[in-house]
Q: What sequence folds into this?
């Protein structure tokens, strides 16, 4: 039997990509002939988890290894900084920097060589064990990654990591020329509002030159102004954005002329600036804003929420105007997932759904979002919800010749047409 190490590299790579990470690490240690191939896969994707169960992840030893063997930095293709469940009012746990295996002086020397304006603060926070300083050191030294994924616990307002992102985008640090997918997603922090003030770092991401797929949560500044010239994101085809209010969305969408998929999570929430709390949501205005991408938009997912579990101020005067009737002119639209009231309205009689949907739709999901707890009533809903929805569905199906699947009210009502192949739309 031929030795495994003599197998062509292409075949070895096809096998190694399915090997669990702990086993890849073992291969690197015990098999000299497979060391290089296994190492390439081991470092191709880096994940750091920082949450209640993982309060002191091994990011410092990772940095030590990468800086002692800089060729490993070129292997890194994806970075995932994950963490979702620190209590909002809890001070972020510090890393232990007093151990002998953390070469702080070496890290500090690397920071000082960047010559960025915030280097002194960066060093100070590194010495005191703040995660943003260590995460920033990792990101600052990566230039060839194609996927960067940063979530809640790593996003804390205007910290070192946010400064590093700005520097990477605008050239003070090695730029993200190969980045294709970007996730910068934070849930609202209701206890420490400053952690939500991430508009600068988020806006900088729209200047990334090659990103095709972006997920961001965008805090709303008092005044929306682009950081430099208005960006043009010709490569961006998929955008998942949350928190962003309509007037600012109107300035963003003209910059993404080739956008095919838009996932927009509209949230009305308490803000220190009450002037930012618009109590009117105009569906006509939303369609007008979407018209900037009418010729390219194929998938549109829209959700709306008033406040959250920790929302402290009741909304008694929320007002909804108009409808999504203008979507009928979006000829490229194939997939639509929106609250039912966006089509049916809030009046005493529902607007016929087929009046608002383009004929080319293949998948329609009509969700029920109960806003009555916030003083928002749907006039046409009187009695059993299903008794109202069922007669609304059939005309929509009949007037949608390309329809594969329609669901309504948490998928409790479902219609699959003859065009829907088995397992086509699970």
A:
């Amino acid at each position: 039997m031929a030795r495994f190490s003599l197998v062509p590299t292409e075949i070895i790579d096809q096998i190694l990509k399915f090997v669990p990470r702990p086993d890849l690490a073992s291969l690197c240690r015990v098999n000299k002939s497979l060391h290089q191939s296994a190492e390439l896969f081991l470092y191709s994707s880096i994940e750091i988890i920082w949450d209640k169960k993982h309060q002191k992840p091994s990011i410092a030893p990772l940095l030590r290894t990468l800086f002692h063997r800089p060729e490993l930095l070129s292997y890194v293709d994806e970075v995932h900084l994950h963490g979702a469940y620190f209590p909002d009012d809890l001070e972020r746990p510090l890393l232990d920097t007093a151990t002998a295996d953390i070469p702080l002086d070496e890290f500090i020397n690397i920071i000082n060589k960047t010559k960025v304006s915030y280097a002194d603060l960066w060093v100070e926070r590194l010495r005191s064990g703040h995660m943003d300083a260590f995460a920033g050191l990792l990101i600052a030294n990566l230039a060839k990654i194609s996927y960067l994924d940063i979530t809640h616990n790593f996003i804390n307002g205007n910290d070192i990591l946010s400064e590093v992102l700005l520097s990477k985008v605008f050239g003070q640090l090695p730029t993200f020329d190969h980045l294709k997918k970007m996730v910068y997603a934070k849930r609202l922090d209701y206890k420490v509002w400053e952690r939500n003030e991430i508009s600068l770092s988020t806006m900088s991401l729209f200047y990334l030159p090659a990103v095709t797929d972006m997920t961001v949560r965008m805090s709303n500044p008092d005044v929306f102004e682009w950081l430099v010239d208005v960006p043009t994101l010709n490569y961006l085809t998929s955008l998942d954005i949350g928190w962003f209010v309509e007037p600012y969305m109107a300035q963003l969408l003209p910059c993404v002329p080739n956008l095919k998929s838009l996932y927009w999570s509209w949230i009305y929430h308490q803000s220190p600036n009450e002037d930012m709390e618009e109590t009117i949501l105009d569906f006509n205005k939303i369609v007008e804003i979407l018209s900037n991408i009418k010729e390219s938009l194929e998938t549109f997912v829209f959700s709306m929420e008033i406040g959250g579990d920790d929302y402290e101020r009741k909304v008694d005067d929320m007002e909804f105007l108009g409808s999504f009737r203008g979507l009928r002119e979006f000829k490229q639209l194939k997939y639509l997932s929106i609250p039912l009231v966006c089509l049916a309205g809030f009046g005493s009689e529902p607007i016929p759904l087929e009046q608002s949907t383009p004929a080319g739709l293949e998948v329609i999901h009509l969700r029920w979002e109960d806003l009555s707890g916030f003083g928002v009533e749907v006039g046409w809903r009187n009695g059993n919800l299903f008794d109202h929805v069922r007669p609304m569905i059939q005309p929509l199906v009949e007037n949608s010749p390309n329809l594969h699947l329609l669901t309504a009210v948490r998928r409790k009502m479902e219609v699959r047409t003859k065009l829907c192949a088995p397992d086509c739309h699970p």
Observations:
- Residues 1-43 form one domain.
- Residues 158 and 206 are 17 Å apart (CA to CA).
